[in-house]
Write a structure and sequence with these properties.
4-stranded antiparallel beta sheet, mainly beta, 129 residues
Length: 129
């Protein structure tokens, strides 16, 4: 069964850090752009970061730029989201999604949902004192 599984969420104080992981099983990530989304209660799910097949292209939403860093280790079939200087407004369920990409190319964080083949189940991040 092909799937993405996120992990690493939890409760953290403002100003703290977390690292989320997105592990693929049943398929390899080499030919996929990976995008991180988040959805806060009562709000729509929005893309916040993406990384291209080999990591040559990354992109960030203004709300996380300078605080979050996306990386990937294709040998481990895993993509990471390093989150620093966390704020209460970062509280949300975080999802990763895989977009087919036969060749290395620029990634964009706002693409139609039907462009993604796989979605994870999400991991909760809560930023609170």
């Amino acid at each position: 069964q092909s799937q993405l599984v996120e992990s690493g969420g939890g409760l953290v104080q403002p100003g703290g850090s977390l690292r989320l992981s997105c592990l693929a099983s049943g398929f390899t990530l080499d030919h996929y752009i990976i995008t991180w989304f988040r959805q806060a209660p009562g709000k729509e799910r929005r893309g916040i970061s993406c990384i291209s097949n080999s990591g040559g292209s990354t992109n960030y939403a203004d709300s996380v730029k300078g605080r979050f860093t996306v990386s990937r280790d294709n040998a481990k079939n895993t993509v990471y989201l390093h989150m620093n200087s966390l704020k209460p407004e970062d509280t949300a369920v975080y999802y990763c999604a895989a977009q087919p990409s036969p060749v290395e190319r620029t990634c964009y964080i706002q693409r139609p949902r039907d462009e993604y083949d796989y979605w994870g189940q999400g991991t909760q991040v809560t930023v609170s004192a």
